[in-house]
């Protein structure tokens, strides 16, 4: 008979869910990982986000995954910036490149990818970006095989794909059980919502937010005077591959050559895969407001039409792209912002600008330094505000207010809209998940409710897993990260 009781149930197998399931299973919990899609990985696999951006805090599980990928031929690499539309030099470059380019850089190592902050006067010059910003592009099929292997090695994680939950049973601030779409009812002492749109939290009755909060709600200086429904833009990523038959691919019937959704085609991020293809990320493909007003299947089809028009534009206007052909369009939209859970603590713009030294939170369980970063004109906010220092994410941001056995480990954790624009990247989500899984294991061992987990013990357990929770980086952690070939 199928099991119906576990030590921990994790719903959603994107970066946060994978981090939670793997951390908990490695520490002895029997875990069930439930994923609605047909495979694990979330946007890091199905959404085309096949590159970890430069940023502080990508230690712990992200580095473990990276080292596994390094053992596989051309599965992962480190990238540096090549051309960029803002660095145009008419004397040496024939035209203005249509975005930013990241190319494989064999001279760089993983440690080089762990900083984004610190640009002089907050302005990332060409020299600073070339020296400091390095990404981690990977092949998604190899990534998927690695995380499956890591989960299987624990011997304690049951994985269900193509499965969601139809109902949730809640009593006195506790999730008691889930009714899965398979008809099974499963229960556990603890649950993690890693669904992205925090569907478990919402159906359980947690208070959630969506859209931009007013400035007075959290005292954020860059927030609007009145709340609104604006969201960060949505992207549909695609992949192109080199071809010996150069030319402009035919535009499908019914799709115009011109850009019909804005005055001109947007810029893109172009990242070279380890095996030579290009990952193309339009910034954005659809405004957040427009996406909210549509059903997801309709939004996807409209974004797909825009991808085809944009790719035709690139080939028609830039000769270098005629040496590529369209290989793959992501089956999932890259959604940057959705519902967010009201947690015991809400990370705000003020936390992010203050940095670790200014925050003073004793329960930081991971660090990050990505910019306050919005996509699309519909947000009404500056495009990108770089940070002077890294900041910490408190454990309380994972604890939905009013619940005792539920954690949230995804972009829908305890963040304001402004904070979520920074604290939403894949490696940060992996680390939120690692903290959630570790907290669940610690609560089980100590016989405590999740809000009662001693934060000093949690932080120490994370340090033992090579998670950076201190700034600057301790020497022993730096030595660990320098050993890229260790098993």
Topology (elements, then pairings):
Blueprint: E1 8-11, H1 15-26, E2 31-34, E3 51-52, H2 61-70, E4 79-84, E5 99-104, H3 126-132, E6 134-137, H4 140-154, E7 157-160, E8 165-171, E9 174-180, E10 185-186, E11 190-193, H5 199-204, E12 208-209, H6 215-218, E13 234-235, E14 238-242, E15 268-272, E16 278-282, H7 288-292, H8 296-317, E17 324-329, E18 334-335, E19 340-341, H9 349-359, E20 364-368, E21 372-373, E22 384-385, E23 391-394, E24 406-408, H10 417-420, H11 426-446, H12 455-464, H13 475-482
Parallel strand pairs: 1-2, 1-11, 2-7, 5-15, 11-24
Antiparallel strand pairs: 3-6, 4-5, 4-6, 8-9, 9-10, 12-19, 13-18, 14-16, 14-17, 15-16, 20-23, 21-22
Helix pairs in contact: 1-4, 1-11, 11-12
């Amino acid at each position: 008979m199928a099991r119906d009781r576990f030590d921990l149930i994790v719903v959603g197998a994107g970066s946060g869910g994978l981090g939670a399931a793997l951390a908990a299973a490695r520490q002895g919990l029997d875990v069930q990982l439930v994923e609605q899609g047909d495979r694990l990985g979330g946007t890091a696999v199905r959404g085309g986000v096949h590159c970890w951006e430069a940023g502080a805090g990508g230690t712990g599980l992200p580095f473990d995954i990276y080292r596994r990928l390094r053992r596989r031929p051309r599965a992962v690499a480190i990238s540096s910036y090549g051309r960029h539309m803002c660095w145009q030099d008419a004397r040496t470059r024939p035209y203005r490149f249509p975005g930013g380019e990241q190319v494989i850089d064999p001279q760089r190592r993983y440690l080089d990818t762990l900083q984004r902050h610190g640009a002089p006067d907050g302005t990332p010059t060409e020299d600073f970006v070339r020296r400091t910003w390095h990404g981690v592009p990977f092949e998604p099929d190899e990534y998927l095989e690695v995380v499956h292997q890591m989960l299987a090695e624990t011997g304690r994680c049951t994985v269900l794909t193509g499965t969601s939950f139809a109902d949730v049973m809640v009593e006195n601030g506790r999730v008691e059980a889930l009714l899965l779409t398979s008809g099974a009812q499963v229960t556990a002492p603890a649950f993690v919502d890693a669904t992205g749109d925090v569907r478990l939290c919402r159906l359980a009755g947690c208070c959630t937010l969506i859209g931009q909060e007013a400035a007075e709600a959290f005292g954020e200086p860059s927030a609007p005077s009145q709340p609104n429904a604006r969201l960060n833009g949505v992207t549909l990523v695609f992949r192109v591959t080199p071809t010996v038959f150069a030319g402009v691919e035919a535009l499908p019937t019914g799709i115009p050559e011109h850009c019909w959704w804005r005055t001109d085609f947007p810029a893109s991020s172009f990242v070279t895969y380890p095996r030579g293809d290009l990952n193309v990320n339009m910034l954005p493909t659809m405004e957040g407001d427009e996406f909210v007003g549509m059903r997801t299947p309709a939004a996807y089809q409209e974004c797909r039409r825009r991808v085809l028009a944009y790719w035709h534009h690139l080939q028609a206007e830039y000769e270098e792209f005629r040496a590529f052909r369209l290989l793959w369009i992501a089956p999932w939209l890259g959604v940057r912002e959705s519902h967010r859970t009201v947690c015991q603590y809400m990370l705000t713009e003020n936390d992010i600008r203050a940095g670790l030294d200014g925050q003073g939170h004793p329960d930081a369980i991971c660090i990050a330094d990505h910019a306050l970063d919005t996509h699309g004109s519909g947000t009404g906010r500056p495009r990108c505000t770089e940070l002077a220092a890294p900041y910490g994410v408190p454990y309380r941001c994972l604890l939905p207010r009013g619940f005792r056995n539920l954690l949230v480990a995804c972009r829908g954790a305890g963040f304001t809209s402004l904070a979520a624009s920074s604290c939403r990247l894949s490696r940060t989500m992996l680390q939120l998940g690692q903290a959630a899984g570790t907290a669940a294991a610690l609560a089980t061992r100590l016989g405590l409710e999740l809000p009662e987990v001693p934060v000093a013990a949690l932080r120490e357990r994370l340090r033992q897993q090579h998670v950076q929770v201190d700034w600057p980086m301790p020497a022993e952690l730096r030595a660990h990260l320098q050993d890229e070939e260790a098993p």
